[in-house]
Every structure is written in structure tokens, then in C-alpha cells.
Design a protein that fits this description.
Largest sheet: 2 strands, antiparallel
Distance between the termini: 58 Å
Number of strands: 6
Strand content: 15-25%
Oligomer: single chain
CATH superfamily: His-Me finger endonucleases
Radius of gyration: 19 Å
CATH topology: His-Me finger endonuclease fold
Number of domains: 1
Number of helices: 5
Helix content: 25-40%
């Protein structure tokens, strides 16, 4: 298929032009995943979560940002929010993932709010998100309580 100028992505199974694939090495061989699928794989690996977990999270968030409630645009991927105090640099452990956020809440709202001194953190909407984020609720539903 590469000879025809197209290749099939191993994930989405769509046959796409070579320009839709990143080069793997200096020999110019393309990656087995198209750019969007590869970006998603890298993102999931970075946050140490599965696609199914993210889909379930989006489902319990009703397809909306966990903070402001704006619907997730079809053409834009929601940001995976995690507690930077747990995993500040590099890959996330996965347990500190809190929810899916829109660009505005992820970059401008939450980061700014968490940097405030505790006595100034008086915004109930953000406090409720931080105290019981959607991912924690999802894990509580999925993980049965330990037998006594």
C-alpha cells in the first residue's frame, strides 16, 4: 500500500495518504498509526489511562467540561486534568487523573485557582470539582469496596 502513496492506520483502520503519518526514522518509514491516532496513543500513555476510561469519564460528565459544563466540541479533544502535586513532571501515575476539561478551564481557570493561597480559594464550583472530581467518582463506581 505504501507504493500507492497510502497506508492503513493500525488503529482507525482508515487508508490515508502518507502525509497523514509521521516519519518513524531517518529511512523515512511511516509510523503504523496516523497522526491523530498516534497523538491519542501518546496522550493516553502520558496520563496512564485507557481509551475506555476516558470514554467512561466523558460519559459520566455528559460530554461536557467537568468545571464549566460547556459541551465538548466534536473537533477538539478535551484536556485530561491531573493533580500536578502527585505527578508534577513526566508521565502521570493515572490515579491522579481528575477529569476532562475544556481549554479555557484547563489553562486559565484551574491552574490560576490552584496557585492561590487556601484562604482565597472560595469558588464553590472549583472547590467541588477538586474535592470530588469525576474520575474519582468513576473509580468508586468501578472498584468495589474491599471485603471486611
Amino acid at each position: 500500500m505504501v507504493q500507492l502513496g497510502a497506508i492503513q492506520c493500525l488503529h482507525c483502520r482508515q487508508c490515508k495518504p502518507l502525509s497523514e503519518f509521521s516519519k518513524l526514522n531517518v529511512s523515512g518509514d511511516p509510523r503504523p498509526y496516523c497522526k491523530p491516532c498516534n497523538a491519542e496513543r501518546v496522550r493516553l500513555r502520558h496520563y496512564n489511562v485507557t481509551r475506555e476510561f476516558v470514554e467512561q469519564l466523558l460519559l459520566i460528565q455528559e460530554g461536557k467540561c467537568a468545571i464549566c459544563g460547556d459541551p465538548a466540541p466534536a473537533e477538539v479533544t478535551m484536556h485530561i486534568d491531573h493533580d500536578h502535586a502527585c505527578c508534577p513532571v513526566g508521565r502521570s501515575c493515572g490515579a491522579c487523573v481528575r477529569g476532562l476539561l475544556c481549554n479555557r478551564c484547563n489553562y486559565h481557570g484551574l491552574g490560576w485557582y490552584e496557585a492561590l493561597p487556601p484562604q482565597l480559594r472560595t469558588f464553590g464550583l472549583l472547590n467541588s470539582y477538586l474535592s470530588l472530581p469525576p474520575a474519582r467518582r468513576l473509580r468508586m463506581e468501578v472498584t468495589p469496596p474491599a471485603a471486611a
